[in-house]
Amino acid sequence: MSTQESYVTDDGRTIGPTVMEMKNITLRFGGVKAITDISFDIREGEIRAIIGPNGAGKSSMLNVISGFYVPQEGEVWYKGKKRPPMRPYQVAEQGIARTFQNIALFEGMTVLDNVMTGRLRKMNASLISQAIWRGKAEKEEIENREAVEKIIDFLEIQAIRKTPVGRLPYGLKKRVELARALAAEPSILLLDEPMAGMNVEEKEDMSRFILDMNDEFGTTIALIEHDMGVVMDLSDRVVVMDYGKKIGDGTPDEVRNNQAVIDAYLGVAHD
Ligand SMILES: Nc1ncnc2c1ncn2[C@@H]1O[C@H](COP(=O)(O)OP(=O)(O)OP(=O)(O)O)[C@@H](O)[C@H]1O
C-alpha cells in the first residue's frame, strides 16, 4: 500500500499518509554506534511502536525524533519537508510532544497547573495584546481552560486536579504527564516507555488511555518500549531494533513471526 493513501483499520480508525520519515539515520557516541542506518516512517493517526532489547538504541531514536540528538548521518522528514537540525524546543513548537521515562513534572505544583504548562505552546496572546485586547486574552484563557478540563476528564484525573503532583503515586504521575503532553494538542506524541515500572493493572489502564487517546483525539503516537508483549496489542505497526540496527518492521503479526526478532528476544548470538 502506498504511504500516501489513507486506509481504515479493522477497528474502524483512519490511518493517513506519512507524517514523519526517518531516512538512513546513523548516530554515534564516540566509537559507539547507537543507531546504524535506520529508516522508517510514521503515518498520521497510527500507533507506531519502536521496540527492542536493552541497549538496542530505542531511546537514542526517540531523542533523534525529539531533537535532543542530531544524527551524524541521515535525514528527518516532517510533514513533507526535510527538517534542518533543530533544538528540542523548536521540535516541540512544530507539534511534537513527549513524555519522559523518568517523569519530568513540577512536583510542587498541582495536577491542573502541570497540565496547564503543556498548553503554553497554544497560548498566543502576547503581553502587549493582552494589555490592549484584554478580551482576546480572556477568550484564549477560557479556551485553554476548557481544553485542559476535557483532557483531565478524559484521563480520569478530576479527583486529583488540586493535588500537588509530588504526593501522587507513580502510576498517576505518569497519567498526569500524559495529560500535559496531550494538552499541547501535538501532531505526534512520543511516549518514552510509558509502562516502565508499572504493575499489571496500571499497565492495562495506560494501554486503554493510549488507545482511547488515539481514537478520540486522532493523535499520532510513537512509543518506545522494551517489553514486546505490552505493545503488540496496542500498535498498528512496530519497528524492531537490536544492537542499533532495524531487524523488523511491520504489523504486530508480521513482527511476531519474524525469525530475526524471535532470535533477538531469545538472546540468540549474533554473527
Ligand atoms: N549519551 C550517550 N553516550 C554514550 N553512549 C550512549 C549514550 N546514549 C546511549 N548510548 C549507547 O548507545 C546504545 C543504545 O542505547 P539506548 O539507550 O538508545 O538503547 P535503548 O534501546 O533505549 O536501551 P534501554 O531499553 O536499556 O533503555 C547503548 O550501547 C548505549 O550504551
TrEMBL record:
Report the superkingdom from the record.
Answer: Bacteria
The UniProt record lists the ABC transporter domain at 20-268
Top EC class, one word: hydrolase
Q: Which CDD domains match?
A: ABC_Mj1267_LivG_branched
InterPro entries named in the record: AAA+_ATPase, ABC_AA/LPS_Transport, ABC_transporter-like_ATP-bd, BCA_ABC_TP_C, P-loop_NTPase
Q: Give the E.C. number(s).
A: 3.6.3.25
Q: Which Pfam families match?
A: ABC_tran, BCA_ABC_TP_C
Asked whether the UniProt record includes Nucleotide-binding among its keywords, one would answer yes
> Which GO MF terms does the UniProt record name?
ATP binding; ATP hydrolysis activity
Keyword tags:
ATP-binding, Hydrolase, Nucleotide-binding, Transport
Q: Provide one Gene Ontology cellular component.
A: plasma membrane
Gene3D superfamilies from the entry?
P-loop containing nucleotide triphosphate hydrolases (3.40.50.300)
Protein name, entry field: Sulfate/thiosulfate import ATP-binding protein CysA
Q: Which organism is it from?
A: Shimia thalassica
Query: Which gene underlies this protein?
Result: cysA_3
